[in-house]
Structure formats: C-alpha cells, structure tokens
Inverse folding.
C-alpha cells in the first residue's frame, strides 16, 4: 500500500487538507509509476512545482492553462512515433476551470481524435488558484468571488455543466465519476481508465477547505456527504451507457451537506434562501431518479 | 541565388508549398500537427498525402481542432523527445501567441513554417509580413526566405539551428503567402541522403520518460525568472553564429547557399542601398540591375535573420552607404513605421554609421508591388543622398487617396 | 541553485521543503485502539503517515506513524480514523 505514495512526495505547498493533493495521490495510486502527467495551470500545478523543487516522482509537464488535452495528444503521438509507448499511461489532470471552461476545446479535440489518454478533472467547483472565482463547475447557490451572495443574489444561479456526459458523447470507452471521499473506488476507476485503450475520462469531486469554507480536517467527510445527499452521484459509463452506479440506500437531505460549508451559509440566513435550497434538493432528486441511486 | 549548371538537370517545377513539404519529409519529422488556414494549407495537405502514401516513416500526423492545439500538441511532443513540425499563417499564428512564448521559454526546438499573410481586421488572405514580425518578442528565431528554394532549404537549416544543444529554441521559417507558397517554380527538391548527412537524429538531453522522471514547465518566482529570460537571450546571441554556420554547411553539402544573417547584392560600392526581407527582394534586385546597367551605384541588402536581429552585420553592410531606404511589408500602428525600418534605425543609432535612413511600407494586404514603385523609392532615396536631408522619414508608399 | 533549460526539475526535490513548520495542531496516536486499517495513511494529503514496518504483526499489518517533518496538522487522519486513535493536540514549541 505504501509504495505508490512515493510518486507524489511530501513537501508540496498545498493547503492543509488539500483536495487536489488527495486527488493527485489517488490518480497516481491507480496509474502506477509508468505514466506521464500533463497538468494544466491551477492549484495542483502551482503547489507542486516551484522551481527548483517538484513533488512529482513521475515525468510531468505543465504548459499553459487551456491546452491540457492538446499537450497530452502530442505526448501520446511522440511516444508512438519514437516507439516508446509500451504500457506508459498518459494522464491529464486539470481543475474544473481548465477542463470544463477554457480547455474544453482542446480536450474535445483530443477525445474526438481517439488518443490513448486518460483525463482527470479535479473538480473543486471554482477557479481556486486565482482566489475562488465561479466556473462552469460551480453549483447552484454557491457563493464565489465572482458570483457572490449579496442583497440581490443567492450566489451562483447555474447548475454544474454535465462534463461526464459531454466526454461520453465523444465515444469514450470509459467515463466515471469519482470522489476523493471514496479513495478505493477512485483508485479502482483510475486504474480501469488507464488500462482501457482510448480516451477515458474521470471526473473527481474534490471539496476544497480554503475555497468552500470548512475546517481542513473535514475534506474527506464532506466529500462523502456530497455523495450521500446525491448531489454527486458515483457512476461509470462505457460507450455512453451507464454500467455501474454506487447506490445510496437512504439519501440524506442536501441541507446536511450545504450547512457544513460557508459558501452556502447565506442560504440559511437570507429570506428566500429556503427556496434556493429546495432547488438544490431538486437537483439531487433528479440524480436519484436518473441514476436509480436508491433502488 | 544562381543555380549550378549540374543542378539544373535536377530541377522540377513544383508549387512552393510542395517544395517545403518535401523538405519537411526529408528532415524525418516524428510528429506533425495540422490545421487549415489559407495560404498555408497546401503544405499540410501535401504532408498528409505523403503520410497516406507511407512516405514518412515513424511519423504521427495529428489533425488538431485549432491552431492553439496545433502548437500545444507540438509542445507536448517535443518535450516527449520527438522532432516536430507545423505550418501556420496570420490568424492561426495569432491564436498561438501565448503558446509561442511558452514553447520558447520551455526551450523546445519546434520548427514551424509561417506563410506570411495580412491580419484581420479587415480580414484579408493575401501576403504581407505583419503576422510573423509581430511575434518578434516571443523568443523564436525568425528567418525570412527570398524564394521557394530558400523556403524549402530553410526547413533543414531550421532544425539544425533549433536542435543545437547551445540554442534549443524554436524556429519560424517565414515565406510570403501566395507569392512563394502558391507559385510554381523550378526548384531542386531536397535530397534525402544529403538531408541525412546534414541533419542528425534529434536526441534531446531532457525528455518525458518514466525511466527518468523530470518535471517540465515549473514556475519561477522573482528570484530566478530574470535569469531564465536572460538565458534565452544568450542562446539568441549564439544563434547569430549558428545561423551563418548552418547556412554555410548546407551550402557545402548541397551546393545551395542563400546567405547568412544578411546578404548584400551589388553592395560593395553602393551609395544608395535598399533593405528588405522576403520575396520582394527579387523584384528589387531586378530594378537595381537596370540602374546598375546605367552605371548608377545602387545596392540591395537582404535581411535574412530577423530574430536574432543582426545589428552588427547590418551596420557593417550599411557603413559605406550615403542613403538607405528600408522596404517593409508591415506596420506598427501608432508609430507609422515599418517594423524592419524601426529596428534598423535603432540598431544604427549608437554606432558610427550615420547614414540618412527612410522607411517605406509597401504591399499591405497583398497589394501589388510594381517596378515603378521601387523606382520611385530609389529616386527619392537618391534625392536624400544628394541633399543629405530627409523630408519624409517613413510613409506607406501608395495610398489610394480616392478611397479615403 | 542553477537555472535549467525550460525550468526542468529533477524528481522528488520538494522533500527539501519541510512543511511541518506550518502546523498548529499535531496528530498524537493512541495505538492501544489501533486496528491497523491504514485509513489514516490513505487520507493524508501530504503523504506524511506511513506504515512502520518494524511493528508488523503475524498478518503483516503494521501500525502507522506520522512524519512530523512534513505533517501540516490538517486533522483529516484524526477525523477519519474509525477508532479515534488520533487526537489533534496543540503543539507546544
């Protein structure tokens, strides 16, 4: 169990309780040492590689913010052309901002072309590295610095972009949602994705203590609550069909999850906040129905 | 460039783009990325046909979804140890802007042909040199081809320069759109055996390898960022020497020499010198031939390397002149000067070469450059030589007042 | 330090950065309750809890020790331990 941890070393500059660090750790545990990591700009990249120090014990490249998919495509092509592909796994790891917003074009191109890569989106639901700005991964009701709660606003008023569905629509052989609260599940899914030939996509839910406003000791606990209230369903898709779902026998109400984070605290104080919470509960209910979570 | 008699038998008439694509093939590229944009597209089309016909072994050809991905894929591929190539133009080059700086900063020896085209807006697909010249700060080496033979030959030289262990910088081979890319010219296609003699396989010191894991593209704080940028400058200085060496060695192996950093034409006793880059030099030289036939001391200076800028070589070449005119196919808006003109003027300022120098902007958006325009420029420069005075320092040469 | 082409770094050099100085609270282990499940090692974002192989029982399962050179005191290990083995204690300096 201990060996793969050495692929990411201690001494990185992540916050105490950092979700990105856990996500990277589980990706490496699933992939093993024979991999090349492509990491667009973001918290993970910045905190692990201040020159002259790097926390990565695997080959790693950072280029720009929006080109993770393209750089990974080029790495894969180079390994094939130089006859060095072997079993080496090429893995992109980017945040929600770089994967779902600015980098979606390059990622779409990479998947459409069918490169043998795995792309992991570490979704902490905002542009965290630049100070918690709203992204297309930010859920309804979350207060961020560019979608703040205020006298005339309940915070972000759009739902999360369904990125797994978008990547599955490219004909990906394997797409899975994961959570850093369920380490063994995530490690298993990453291993399956990296072992599958073709472009595979992993979407990892990652609660951020600094950005979401909770004590650093609660990162894993809150990740579990997100799954237990069904706002973050865990499922696997093969060629666009849902093939496995993690059931939630007794889903908890979304309030139990929302009240743990200060980015939602305004919903419990403002007039009309309860209506917003109802909207959020409807998102969870739709997930329950769509994925058969409590059957 | 005059052709050797024995080479004439080897010449074939092909499109300029094909000559370049053929040269790329002989350079044994390993990853090519392609995105269409006129007038570069024939190069990547020719390459894709060569791949489909199994003429380029051990090469992956990626049809990317945007130019930004074209260059980004090459960044990944080059870092993973492959020899890489792409071609682009104008809007496509601009879309790559951020990645150009990134590639140079990461010291990746990518080679890219830029088929020069005007920039939007208004949208215009015809030739001028605004696109590549406006990327001059990116840290890429830029060399401008005078004709289709040189544009093709420069591909091999570009790899030789880029992959040199003391340089490790990406190189832009610039060739005028349509005028060189779409014209059918007699050329000598690059010989594979000569290419293999000239260009060894790409063997970088650092590359992405699970057996030797390293981190590429880490971040540098204020304590070290300056030194990284300075290191690129040091490499540019070495490139001044390497560009001449690479060109000379190419000439030794193939018999074709296109010049070093700069190249003079009827320069030795010239009193009036016209300076320019790219295909317009062909027209300028023809007009100068007429003047020379009448005994007038007019000369031409071809600037071949724009980055690194060969300030010393330019100053030396112009030291005997009495009046100089720079012919530009670009404009820095707000300065009303062509960019080559500004750079030459600046590089002479603190030297002993005190010659009156004027700038003419021609051919923007592909406007035809006629012999009479060049004669006009030469006559005005002769007047500057005679009077010692500059009346108009810089202007667009031929504004259609009736449209304004 | 000398700069490298493209700021390329040799692997694992982050270990020069001893982040243990960041913490206010430190994990203290009461091994009498430990069932050697390994959850603490799994959930540490700083790879700062490791098996102590010298404590291996007949099934090969070990006790876990924190690496205080790097532990940032986040408290996830204490929060997730199923047997409350770990207590986050104010660190006296």
């Amino acid at each position: 169990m201990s060996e793969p941890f050495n692929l990411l070393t201690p001494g990185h500059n992540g916050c105490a309780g950092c979700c990105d660090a856990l996500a990277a750790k589980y990706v490496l545990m699933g992939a093993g040492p024979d991999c090349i990591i492509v990491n667009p700009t973001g918290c993970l990249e910045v905190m692990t590689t201040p020159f002259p120090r790097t926390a990565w014990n695997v080959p790693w490249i950072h280029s720009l913010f929006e080109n993770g998919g393209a750089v990974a495509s080029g790495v894969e092509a180079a390994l094939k052309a130089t006859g060095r592909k072997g079993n080496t796994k090429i893995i992109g790891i980017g945040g929600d901002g770089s994967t779902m917003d600015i980098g979606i074009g390059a990622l779409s191109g990479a998947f459409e072309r069918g490169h043998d890569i795995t792309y992991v989106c570490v979704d902490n639901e905002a542009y965290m590295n630049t100070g918690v700005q709203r992204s297309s991964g930010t859920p309804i009701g979350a207060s961020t610095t560019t979608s703040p709660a205020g006298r005339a606003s309940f915070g972000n008023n759009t739902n999360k972009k369904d990125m797994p569905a978008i990547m599955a629509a490219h004909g990906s052989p394997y797409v899975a949602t994961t959570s850093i609260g369920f380490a063994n599940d995530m490690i298993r899914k990453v291993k399956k994705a990296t072992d599958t030939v073709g472009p595979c996509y992993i979407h990892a839910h990652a609660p951020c203590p600094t950005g979401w406003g909770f004590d650093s000791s609660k990162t894993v606990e809150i990740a579990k609550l997100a799954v237990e209230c069904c706002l973050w369903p865990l499922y696997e898709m093969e060629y666009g069909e849902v093939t496995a779902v993690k059931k939630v026998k007794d889903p908890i109400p979304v309030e139990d999850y929302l009240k743990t984070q200060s980015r939602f605290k305004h919903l419990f104080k403002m007039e009309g906040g309860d209506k917003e919470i109802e909207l959020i509960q409807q998102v969870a209910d739709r997930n329950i129905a769509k994925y058969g979570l409590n059957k | 460039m005059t052709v050797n008699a024995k080479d004439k038998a080897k010449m074939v008439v092909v499109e300029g783009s094909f000559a370049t694509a053929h040269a790329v093939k002989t350079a044994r590229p390993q990853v090519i990325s392609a995105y269409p944009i006129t007038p570069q597209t024939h190069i990547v089309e020719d390459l894709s046909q060569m791949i489909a016909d199994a003429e380029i072994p051990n090469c992956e050809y990626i049809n990317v979804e945007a130019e930004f991905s074209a260059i980004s894929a090459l960044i990944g591929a080059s870092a993973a140890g492959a020899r890489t190539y792409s071609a682009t133009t104008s809007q496509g080059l601009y879309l790559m802007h951020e990645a150009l700086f990134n590639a140079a900063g990461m010291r990746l020896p990518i080679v890219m042909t830029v088929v020069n085209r005007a920039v939007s807006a208004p949208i215009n697909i015809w030739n001028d040199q605004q696109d590549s010249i406006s990327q001059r700060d990116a840290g890429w080496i830029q060399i401008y081809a005078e004709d289709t033979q040189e544009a093709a030959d420069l591909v091999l030289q570009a790899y030789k320069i880029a992959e040199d262990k003391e340089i490790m910088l990406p190189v832009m081979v610039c060739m005028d759109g349509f005028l060189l890319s779409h014209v059918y010219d007699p050329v000598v296609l690059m010989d594979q055996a000569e290419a293999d003699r000239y260009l060894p396989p790409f063997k970088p010191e650092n590359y992405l390898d699970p057996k030797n894991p390293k981190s590429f593209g880490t971040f540098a704080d204020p304590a070290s960022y300056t030194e990284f940028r300075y290191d690129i400058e040091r490499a540019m200085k070495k490139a001044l020497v390497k560009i001449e060496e690479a060109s000379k060695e190419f000439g030794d192996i193939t018999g074709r020499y296109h010049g070093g950093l700069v190249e003079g034409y009827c320069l030795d006793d010239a009193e009036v010198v016209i300076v320019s880059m790219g295909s317009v030099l062909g027209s300028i030289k023809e007009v100068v031939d007429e003047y020379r036939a009448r005994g007038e001391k007019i000369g031409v200076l071809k600037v071949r390397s724009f980055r690194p800028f060969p300030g010393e070589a330019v100053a030396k070449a112009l030291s005997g002149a009495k009046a100089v005119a720079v012919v530009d196919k670009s404009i820095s808006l707000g300065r009303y000067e062509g960019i080559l003109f500004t750079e030459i003027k600046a590089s002479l300022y603190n030297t002993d070469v005190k010659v009156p120098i004027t700038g003419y902007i021609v051919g923007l958006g592909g406007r035809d450059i006629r012999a009479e325009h060049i004669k006009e420029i030469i006559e005005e420069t002769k007047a500057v030589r005679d009077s010692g005075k500059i009346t108009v320092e810089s202007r667009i040469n031929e504004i259609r007042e009736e449209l304004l | 330090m000398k700069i490298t082409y493209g700021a390329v770094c040799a692997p694992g050099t982050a270990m020069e950065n001893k982040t243990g100085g960041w913490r206010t609270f430190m994990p203290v282990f009461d091994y009498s309750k430990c069932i050697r499940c390994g959850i603490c090692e799994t959930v540490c974002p700083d790879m700062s809890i490791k098996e102590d192989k010298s404590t291996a029982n007949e099934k090969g399962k070990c006790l876990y020790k924190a690496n205080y050179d790097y532990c940032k005191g986040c408290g996830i290990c204490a929060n997730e331990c199923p047997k409350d083995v770990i207590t986050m204690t104010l660190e006296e300096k």
Observations:
- The longest helix of chain A spans residues 273-291.
